[in-house]
Amino acid sequence: GVPGLDGGRTYSWNGGSATLAAGLGDGGVDEVRFPATTGRYVRMSGTKAANQYGFSLWELEAYGGQSANLAQGKATTASSNATGFEPAKATDGDAATRWAVATTERPNPGWLAVDLGQPQQLDKVLLRWENAYAAAYDVQVSDDGQSWRTVAGVPKKQQANGNWLNVDGRA
Prior knowledge:
With about 170 residues, the protein is mostly beta strands. It has strands at about 10-15, 15-20, 30-50, 55-65, 75-80, 100, 110-130, 135-140, 150-155, 165. It is globular.
């Protein structure tokens, strides 16, 4: 890292700027907020694992303007799972159980999806990662479990046009 460049970043360029939050895609707990939308299904679609172990979640939680976790106890599926680490363990509310992708799918890609049972308003997903976490992933929603729309990407992608870039006033 560069001294003094820890935490969130503000980038400025000719014609625009963006502030990228720290703390997403680095393991631990990711609180991913996005504009309110409606969907019956919610999915974490991992595109890049942080290490050779792929993806593993203690819990995937979904919220929509209320305090109740909409994903807890709901039907959960995944691209694959390791023996003993079934998808439902990521939505069972038990902090001691988890889902993990199968060893044959490691390190990339992988996904975990939850059927919320009926369309729900959503504006936040909480991902409680095990040491096998995603360095890059999308949070997606669907009305039918087949056609997915991305509501948040981690890391957030920005397009900067111009011939200069200023980072936190340190151009």
